[in-house]
Amino acid sequence: MASFLLHVPNTLRNPRVSASSFSNGSVPSNNNQASVSGKGGPIIIELPLNQIRRPLMRTRSNDPQKVQELMDSIAQIGLQVPIDVLEVDGAYYGFSGCHRFEAHQRLGLPTIRCKICRGTKETLR
Questions:
Q1: Model pTM score
Q2: What one-character DSSP code corresponds to residue 100?
Q3: Is residue 58 classed exposed, middle or buried when 0-12, 13-18 and 19+ CB atoms within 10 A define those classes?
Q4: Tens digits of residue pLDDT in 49-67
Q5: What CA–CA distances, in Å, run from 36 to 23, 32, 50, 78?
């Protein structure tokens, strides 16, 4: 029989933080700033929905059935795949995950798990 050793991050050991209170069942980082520790790669954090700008929402409409299915899934098991967000000069822009974003809005969840990539104004254009 195999034995496994589970290492639990310190953030999950804090009894004052409840993982179930977040949209995806995970504990967010200590702050909402996309600070990358020297590596320059994407990070995963919880962001408030109202901090994410959605420039394509005016040009796209979401499939209501897909949104409802995601709402049911998120309510049962949490968000499984974070949305991609571009951080430019401290502002967050979401271009993907439109159905997941709307499902969170309609469920009344205050935050959503995001994969943050840093970019420039050139990238944003």
A1: 0.67
A2: H
A3: exposed
A4: 999 999 876 667 899 999 9
A5: 23, 12, 22, 25
